[in-house]
Amino acid sequence: MPQQVTVTEHIILHQNMVPKATGQFTRLFNEIVLSAKIISRQVNKAGLVDVLGFTGDTNVQGEEVKKLDEYANRILIHRLARSGVLCAMASEENADIIEIPHGLPQGGYIIIFDPLDGSSNIDVNVNIGTIFSIYRRVSPSSEPLMTSDVLQPGVEQVAAGYILYGSSTMLVFTTGTGVHGFTLDPGVGEFLLSHPNIRIPEQGKIYSVNEGYSQYWDEPTREVVNYFKSSENNHKKPYSARYIGSLVADFHRNLLYGGIFLYPADLRDPKKPAGKLRLLCEANPMAMLVEQAGGMAIDGHKRILEIDPDHLHQRVPLFIGSRDDVKKVQQIYAKYN
Ligand code: AHM
Ligand code: MG
């Protein structure tokens, strides 16, 4: 422990390298870290205290809200609002932009988060995660916040990351200078640097997709998945299928081992031709992370990070992972244009 770098130490060291650093980002990050510890503690107690099951409410996505979803959302909103450096927040669980309560100090950052991703796994003790994405306000602080401050393309993110509640709790993030992973040491209650400078292998051996929906896929998606399953691919043998159904866990495994995660467009529901995952709170932060680790993220054709969002809960098809694997997807999709 004495030689190990804590996440706070890491952030302070890197902030000092940024000209005109004011310490605001460090304050925001400290609240993310504290929220992660509080949520992790509650996740670990699931089954012992009454936090499993549903609250009885339905969220903005039309999904039933689990008690732990609601708990994580409440903790994040409460803690982050108190960082004193935010002008707005947005959560997967809230229909609208969340304002900073009157009387609390504000600043120039905006945070967007999915408080507890992979909810279907909560009650069965399978990995879940928290995802976050941070932007700077663009409009002058003397004027009212604009919707366009929150609806920025992913290239404008100043930081992004996730907390994975797994066999251990990990915080993985980027501030634009590589991807770093920290593991929570429960004995001392600190996140310690365990995975410095993560690089995703250029080509993987794993594909991750919910293949149960294959009858609803479009032609290019079928060809893509057949490619990874065939022995005619770059790898010369079929990729292994791995799908947890928790984006954070599926992404984390592929980040470390290499591979591709797909959540394609789904023709089941004509109102949702863009698949299930949300651009702002899921696809963009993961896209920033994967690019910082040397991988790629596209919607089939274009870079996720360059998509101009038009609403808060916009969905997007997502193909993300090792560079060569995602490039292959792009080539296959281009044939169908
Ligand atoms: P959630 O935010 O409601 O938990 O939904 C997102 C999750 C992702 O973690 C995961 O990749 C995906 O939904 C799984 O969806 P499906 O069950 O359709 O495969
Ligand atoms: Mg989610």
Automatic annotation (TrEMBL):
<feature type="binding site">
    <location>
        <position position="210"/>
    </location>
    <ligand>
        <name>substrate</name>
    </ligand>
</feature>
<protein>
    <recommendedName>
        <fullName>Fructose-1,6-bisphosphatase class 1</fullName>
        <ecNumber>3.1.3.11</ecNumber>
    </recommendedName>
</protein>
<dbReference type="GO" id="GO:0006094">
    <property type="term" value="P:gluconeogenesis"/>
</dbReference>
<feature type="binding site">
    <location>
        <position position="282"/>
    </location>
    <ligand>
        <name>Mg(2+) 2</name>
    </ligand>
</feature>
<feature type="binding site">
    <location>
        <begin position="117"/>
        <end position="120"/>
    </location>
    <ligand>
        <name>substrate</name>
    </ligand>
</feature>
<comment type="similarity">
    <text>Belongs to the FBPase class 1 family.</text>
</comment>
<feature type="binding site">
    <location>
        <position position="117"/>
    </location>
    <ligand>
        <name>Mg(2+) 2</name>
    </ligand>
</feature>
<dbReference type="Pfam" id="PF00316">
    <property type="entry name" value="FBPase"/>
</dbReference>
<dbReference type="GO" id="GO:0030388">
    <property type="term" value="P:fructose 1,6-bisphosphate metabolic process"/>
</dbReference>
<feature type="domain" description="Fructose-1-6-bisphosphatase class 1 C-terminal">
    <location>
        <begin position="200"/>
        <end position="333"/>
    </location>
</feature>
<feature type="binding site">
    <location>
        <position position="243"/>
    </location>
    <ligand>
        <name>substrate</name>
    </ligand>
</feature>
<dbReference type="GO" id="GO:0005986">
    <property type="term" value="P:sucrose biosynthetic process"/>
</dbReference>
<feature type="binding site">
    <location>
        <position position="92"/>
    </location>
    <ligand>
        <name>Mg(2+) 1</name>
    </ligand>
</feature>
<feature type="binding site">
    <location>
        <position position="114"/>
    </location>
    <ligand>
        <name>Mg(2+) 2</name>
    </ligand>
</feature>
<feature type="domain" description="Fructose-1-6-bisphosphatase class I N-terminal">
    <location>
        <begin position="6"/>
        <end position="196"/>
    </location>
</feature>
<comment type="subunit">
    <text>Homotetramer.</text>
</comment>
<dbReference type="InterPro" id="IPR028343">
    <property type="entry name" value="FBPtase"/>
</dbReference>
<comment type="pathway">
    <text>Carbohydrate biosynthesis.</text>
</comment>
<feature type="binding site">
    <location>
        <position position="276"/>
    </location>
    <ligand>
        <name>substrate</name>
    </ligand>
</feature>
<dbReference type="GO" id="GO:0006000">
    <property type="term" value="P:fructose metabolic process"/>
</dbReference>
<dbReference type="InterPro" id="IPR044015">
    <property type="entry name" value="FBPase_C_dom"/>
</dbReference>
<dbReference type="Pfam" id="PF18913">
    <property type="entry name" value="FBPase_C"/>
</dbReference>
<keyword id="KW-0479">Metal-binding</keyword>
<keyword id="KW-0378">Hydrolase</keyword>
<dbReference type="GO" id="GO:0042132">
    <property type="term" value="F:fructose 1,6-bisphosphate 1-phosphatase activity"/>
</dbReference>
<keyword id="KW-0963">Cytoplasm</keyword>
<dbReference type="GO" id="GO:0005829">
    <property type="term" value="C:cytosol"/>
</dbReference>
<dbReference type="InterPro" id="IPR033391">
    <property type="entry name" value="FBPase_N"/>
</dbReference>
<dbReference type="GO" id="GO:0000287">
    <property type="term" value="F:magnesium ion binding"/>
</dbReference>
<feature type="binding site">
    <location>
        <position position="114"/>
    </location>
    <ligand>
        <name>Mg(2+) 1</name>
    </ligand>
</feature>
<dbReference type="InterPro" id="IPR000146">
    <property type="entry name" value="FBPase_class-1"/>
</dbReference>
<feature type="binding site">
    <location>
        <position position="116"/>
    </location>
    <ligand>
        <name>Mg(2+) 1</name>
    </ligand>
</feature>
<keyword id="KW-0460">Magnesium</keyword>
<dbReference type="GO" id="GO:0006002">
    <property type="term" value="P:fructose 6-phosphate metabolic process"/>
</dbReference>
<keyword id="KW-0119">Carbohydrate metabolism</keyword>
